[in-house]
Design a protein that fits this description.
The complex is a heterodimer. Chain A is an alpha+beta fold. In chain A, the strands form five sheets. Chain A has a six-stranded antiparallel sheet with strand order 3-16-17-12-11-23. A five-stranded antiparallel sheet of chain A has the order 1-2-5-4-13, covered by helices on one side. A five-stranded mixed sheet of chain A has the order 6-7-8-9-10, covered by helices on one side. In chain A, a hairpin with a 5-residue loop joins strand 11 and strand 12. Chain A is globular. Chain A starts with a helix and ends with a strand. In chain B, the strands form five sheets. In chain B, strands 1, 2, 3, 4, 5, 6 and 7 form a seven-stranded mixed sheet that branches. Chain B has a six-stranded antiparallel sheet with strand order 13-10-17-8-9-14. By secondary structure, chain B is an alpha/beta fold. In chain B, strand 18, helix 16 and strand 19 form a beta-alpha-beta unit. Chain B is built from 22 helices and 22 strands. In chain B, helix 20 crosses helix 21. The two termini of chain B are about 25 Å apart. Chain B folds into five domains: about 50 residues; about 160 residues, Flavodoxin domain (Rossmann fold); about 100 residues, Beta Barrel (Elongation Factor Tu (Ef-tu), domain 3), CATH 2.40.30; about 100 residues, NADPH-cytochrome p450 Reductase, Chain A, domain 3 (Up-down Bundle), CATH 1.20.990; about 150 residues, Rossmann fold (3-Layer(aba) Sandwich). The chains are: A alpha+beta, B alpha/beta. At the A-B interface, helix 4 and helix 6 of A face helix 17 and helix 18 of B.
């Protein structure tokens, strides 16, 4: 769809209402009208269809098997056990393909049909979760470090993130009118949108909060990143502010590219909202609304200059940013198993392959799983013991995994039993490669996918594991990411090894990022199939096995050995700063 | 093909009559109709009015020396028998007029002298749709005394139903009651029609000759009517090439419905929307093998029956019904199997269980369940002849040219661990592109688009009943582009179990709505109930919901069409009554009268099965 038409759809939509009600009521098709397909994104949903069935249905004179994906707005990926049970019930009742944890700490429901869309939205809202602005040209789900080591600081940061998410919500009442049958009030259709104006943002906007030494949120991939700076005791001093990150690109179009955010200063916690609003409104006013592929903040900054942007932000915020503080990231993956917070509460991080939680064999492939019922059982356990579970939370990680947080020590054994009984302890047996691998959803539901990602992950990981084993590298903690297309929803450009889909069965092979989310990778081979990918990796693994330095990551090795060359603009290496880890790691059970 | 051949006393000289006979000998129905119009046009240029040549005689009294043959036919069988009788009578030198029951002018009845009726009984004792009015008239108080009438009745029916041939019985009894004179006993023909119909026809012709004593000087205008029949027909089907056999329900659907496209090149199939295609199936080899195996018979053994000798395998595969049971066969098998259980089922008090047996079981199931020996000859004699199945044509020649499209529900199910099929639906479903399918045209001029293209139409066609409406919409779309006047609106009611998998021709209907060739559509997907709904929703529910608007359309002259299952048509009729009654202040009798009037005006047509 052309930029002009998206912009006019927004402007003419009466604050995101469009003709959604009529579209929902049309019984002849499972689709929305075209303009409404754009607008429903702002309500947290995408129209999709089963791409596996497209051709068969067309020859059967049937329209595509339309359905809707609904994505939650869950800042920092946090839900209570009660909310988990409600969302699980919604997945079972209205959706297909279980529950999906995204790389932005949100839930996705797939396969909701149009006639059940409203009921599903109502059910989600009844769980005290909403889906507002989960998609569309607005601020998206705010991500927050999920594997913190300091519980108190995490709570503080999370609270700020949640408040910011609320603050940046569109003001329109459309959502409540359409899904929750709330009354139209005076001014309905012309609500003031002080932050977004009547055409919202030029494109999506992503905010993340990182808490060093973990960079699980990949803070430099965000449009606006906040890096928490802690003092020696682990208390929150404030945040470094980084702007202009973004993953998306278009194959073969040099005008589009991934970019890492640039740090522009430091703010105290009380200034977070003001800075965020300043960045968002500056992007609103200066972002490219003529050429949609150049609309992200990263291009606004590259077009107009970082210094200019920083002054614009300071002007709008009404204060100057302080000098950025030093910090260090050790890792952007998840740390699996149990960890204990400062307050004695236990946190269990489970690996959820590609974030997909199902029972049974999805699409008739793979193992017969019991993950959905397992997590339901754990949530029910916590829900049944409120006195011990006042702080219990389910936290989705930006790596598509799940932390069962705030578990009272008295419940730990039972949680472990349920985990083992339902096969949720796969992380124990999984290789580091397998544990860290990410994949976007891609087929059969994503309309943009050029190749498989989530459904291909198990087979490809197995193939690479075999290859690694040949070089005695089976324990190498390599970060692998697969995306079905260059939009990069699995943050592939930050993968030590990445596949970016180009055509069915064919990918671009990217290599050389670090394992901290501070260096982009580079294109190594273009448009190749699995056999060629493995053939390309084989000699590199051999060299790595032979020549790596102690503790050197695969991506770092490739850079050092000259296999890839990464320009400075694609690196945000910070000076190492001795962090004072306050952690007690207990990965094995007694 | 014309269904009414009226032969008034001729004003032509013998030479002129010969010339006309030669001219018309090779004309088919279309040609004859054209000729009549041409002649009428010529005639109207002269000042004198003249009766049309080949149109049914109306307003004229029944000619003394002529027999009237009236038929009431639902699927074409009674009509065929009546046509054969007409041909036989003409060959014998008799004057004949052949009329469909709803075209017979009842006010002429008291002048009628010699009347033969061929009437079929539907389902549980109903007359065919085209005979309902005549049936009600004859049985009602306005029927005149008929002391001067000679008559005979041949009834067609299905002994599987309790009220076998009851319509023929009623009419036969009633005419006698009105004082008319029976010239031969009533015939009651079961599904093996010719067994009864052929001798009855012979007797009927003989009796008519006796009574009317035909004059030798009467020269029929068409001395050899039988030979001028079209090249292809029921007994001589055309081998149509299968072009497309496409499943149009999604894989997830419980139903397997096929869109079939057949090539009718060179076959002169000038069908109109509303017509049906008859398909002659063959039974699947697997089924034949199972029957042979169950009875321990040799498929290659030659069996002679009625002057035809064929291997048993061919009899079973191509000439005999193996899927549908019939009462006579069950009765025979009860003997062969010496089965008390089966005999009990045949008794009238078990009619309901018997009906279930008929509905759920096939010949092979009976043979397997009840052990009874049959010889090959006995089997061939006892099984019913294979009949063609009729499918409403789902296309308009204006849209698809020399093709006919069909919408076929493939009947396939498991029974006792074995697969069972519908004969014709499986025959079609199992054919690949390029295969030949024996077909013939079965016109249905009771199911036609309005002649006036500005009339609105309401089409009610759930499931495969939607087929003729695809033809209607295609036809009207083609007419619309050629037309200059106002085009009537088209309104479709469709239903099936699931929206996602059973919305037959969904893309085509969406396109039609978009380009205006379909104005309204109302949908009822019965298994897609919302989680709050208490019950399933069917087309009749939608009819009631749209009652006010529907009533307005009807009062504005819209034509109403219903196609599909009998039970559905009944439910739809009830809903239509509700709708009309709601519109007239609650007067149900007036509503009944209104719908009846619509039927008589040919504005309420049904194609039900």
């Amino acid at each position: 769809m052309s930029t002009a038409s998206v912009e006019s759809i927004k402007a003419d939509s009466r604050r995101l209402r469009g003709s959604l009600l009529q579209s929902l009521a049309d019984p002849v098709t499972g689709s929305l009208r075209e303009d409404d397909q754009t607008l429903i994104k702002y309500h947290g949903s995408y129209q999709q269809d089963d791409r596996d069935a497209r051709e068969t249905r067309r020859t059967a004179k049937l329209e595509p098997a339309y359905s809707f994906m609904i994505r939650t707005r869950t800042p920092g990926g946090v839900v209570t056990p009660q909310q988990w049970l409600r969302l699980d019930a919604i997945a079972t009742t209205y959706a297909e393909r279980g529950l999906r944890i995204t790389t932005r700490q949100a839930f996705q429901f797939h396969g909701v049909i149009k006639t059940e869309l409203k009921a599903t939205m109502r059910a989600i809202n009844a769980a005290l979760v909403d889906t507002l602005a989960a998609c569309g040209d607005v601020n998206r789900n705010v991500v927050v470090a999920a594997n913190p080591l300091v519980s108190r600081t995490h709570a503080q940061v999370h609270a700020q993130a949640a408040a910011l998410s609320e603050h940046l919500l569109p003001n329109t009442r459309a959502y409540y009118e359409i899904w929750l049958d709330e009354e139209r009030v005076a001014g309905s259709g012309e609500e003031a949108e002080p932050i977004y104006g009547d055409r919202y943002l030029p494109r999506k906007f992503k905010i993340g909060f990182a808490i060093p030494p973990t960079n699980d949120v990949d803070v430099f991939a965000q449009d606006l990143g906040f890096v928490a700076i802690l003092d020696a005791a682990g208390a929150l001093l404030g945040y470094n502010v980084a702007v202009g990150g973004g993953m998306g690109a278009t194959h073969g179009d040099a005008e589009t590219y991934p970019r890492l955010a640039s740090t522009i200063g430091f703010v105290e916690p009380r200034h977070v909202t003001a800075v965020a609003e300043a960045v968002v409104t500056a992007q609103r006013d200066y972002g490219n609304r003529d050429v949609r592929k150049r609309a992200r903040l990263k291009y606004t900054i590259d077009d107009r200059g970082l210094d200019w942007f920083k002054s614009e932000v300071e002007r709008r915020a009404g204060f100057s940013l302080l000098p950025a503080r030093p910090f260090a990231f050790v890792h952007n993956g998840d740390r699996f198993g149990w960890s204990e917070g400062e307050d004695g509460r236990q946190h269990l991080t489970l690996r959820i392959p590609a974030g997909r939680i199902v029972d049974g064999r999805l699409d008739g492939r793979g193992e017969d799983l019991r993950h959905l019922s397992g997590l339901r059982a754990i949530a029910a356990l916590l829900d049944a013991r409120p006195d011990e579970s006042a702080d219990a939370e389910f936290r989705m990680t930006p790596n598509q995994n799940l932390v069962i947080a705030g578990v009272a020590p008295t419940l730990r054994a039972q949680v472990d039993a349920l985990v083992a009984e339902h096969g949720l302890d796969g992380w124990r047996r999984a290789s580091p490669l397998r544990r860290n691998a990410l994949a976007c959803v891609a087929l059969p539901t994503c309309g943009l996918a050029m190749a498989e990602a989530e459904r291909y992950l198990p087979d490809f990981v197995a193939a690479v594991e075999t290859l690694l084993a040949r070089h005695a590298l089976q324990d190498a903690p390599i970060h692998l990411r697969i995306s079905g297309c260059p939009n990069g929803c699995s943050r592939p450009y930050l993968g030590e090894i990445a596949l970016v889909g180009k055509a069915p069965g064919r990918y671009n092979l990217m290599l050389g990022a670090d394992h901290r989310g501070q260096r982009l990778n580079a294109l190594y081979r273009e448009n190749i199939d699995e056999a060629q990918i493995l053939a390309a990796l084989d000699p590199l693994f051999a060299d790595y096995a032979r020549e790596r330095e102690h503790g050197e990551g695969f991506g770092d090795y490739l850079l050092r050995s000259g296999v890839v060359a990464i320009p400075d603009r694609d690196r945000r290496d910070t000076a190492p700063f001795p962090s004072i880890p306050i952690e007690i790691v207990a990965e094995s059970l007694a | 093909m014309s269904s009414s051949l009226a032969l008034p006393a001729t004003p032509l000289s013998n030479e002129q009559a010969d010339a006309v006979a030669r001219l018309t000998q090779d004309l088919d129905a279309r040609g004859l109709w054209w000729l009549s119009g041409y002649a009428a046009g010529l005639a109207s240029r002269e000042a004198q009015p003249a009766p049309p040549l080949a149109a049914p005689v109306r307003g004229e009294t029944a000619t003394p020396g002529r027999i009237s043959i009236v038929y009431g036919s639902q699927t074409g069988n009674a009509r065929r028998v009546a046509e054969q009788l007409a041909a036989d009578a003409e060959s014998a030198g008799l004057g004949v007029r052949l009329l469909r029951a709803d075209e017979y002018p009842t006010r002429e009845l008291k002048h009628e002298r010699h009347l033969y009726l061929v009437l079929s009984t539907q389902g549980d004792g109903d007359p065919s749709d085209d005979a309902r009015d005549l049936h009600d008239f004859l049985l009602g108080p306005r029927a005149p005394r008929l002391e001067h009438l000679h008559f005979a009745v041949l009834g067609l029916g299905d002994s599987s139903y309790p009220q076998f041939c009851v319509v023929g019985q009623r009419i036969d009894a009633r005419l006698a009651e009105l004082g008319a004179q029976r010239v031969l006993p009533r015939g009651d023909a079961d599904l093996d029609i010719d067994g009864v119909a052929a001798p009855w026809r012979a007797h009927a012709v003989a009796a008519a000759k006796d009574v009317l004593k035909p004059s030798a000087t009467v020269t029929p205008l068409r001395p050899q009517p039988a030979q001028a029949a079209p090249a292809f027909g029921r007994e001589r089907p055309f081998q149509a090439e299968l072009l497309v056999n496409q499943r149009i329900t999604a894989t997830a659907s419980g139903k397997d419905v096929r869109h079939v496209e057949l090539s009718l090149d060179d076959a002169q199939f000038a069908y109109e929307p509303g017509d049906a295609l008859g398909v002659w199936p063959r039974n699947p080899d697997a089924l034949v093998a199972t029957v042979l195996d169950t009875l321990g018979l040799d498929g290659d053994a030659e069996v002679a029956h009625d002057g035809v000798a064929l291997p048993l395998r061919v009899w079973l595969g191509e000439k005999r019904e193996l899927t549908k049971l019939s009462r006579p066969f069950i009765a025979s098998h009860a003997q062969h199997a010496r089965s008390d259980e089966l005999n009990r089922l045949l008794a009238p008090e078990h009619a309901e269980r018997f009906a279930t047996l008929l509905a759920e079981q096939q010949v092979v199931d009976l043979l397997q369940r009840f052990d009874g020996g049959w010889s090959a000859e006995e089997l061939v004699a006892a099984l019913r002849p294979l009949t063609p199945r009729l499918y409403s044509i789902a296309s308009s020649r204006k849209a698809v040219g020399d093709e006919a499209h069909l919408t076929v529900a493939h009947v396939e199910y498991e029974h006792g661990g074995q697969t069972r099929w519908g004969a014709a639906s499986h025959f079609l479903a199992a054919r690949d592109g390029g295969a030949r399918v024996p077909v013939f045209l079965e016109s249905n001029d009771r199911f036609r688009l309005p002649a006036d293209a500005s009339r609105d139409i309401v089409m009610i066609g759930p499931g495969t009943g939607v087929a003729p409406f695809r033809a209607f919409v295609q036809e009207r779309a083609a007419l619309r582009s050629a037309a200059t006047g106002r085009s009537g609106r088209n309104w479709l009611f469709f239903g099936n179990p699931h929206f996602r998998s059973d919305f037959l021709y969904q893309l085509e209907w969406q396109r039609a709505l978009k380009n205006g060739t379909l104005d309204r559509i109302d949908l009822a997907f019965s298994r897609d109930v919302s989680r709050d709904a208490a019950r399933k929703v069917y087309v009749q529910d939608r009819i009631r919901e749209r009652g006010a608007e529907l009533d307005a359309w009807l009062r504005n002259g819209a034509h109403l069409y219903v196609c599909g299952g009998i039970a559905m048509a009944r439910d739809v009729h009830a809903a239509l009554l509700d709708v009309v009654a709601a519109g007239n202040g609650g007067d149900r009798d007036a509503a009944e009268a209104f719908l009846r009037e619509l039927q008589q005006q040919r504005r309420y047509a049904k194609d039900v099965y």
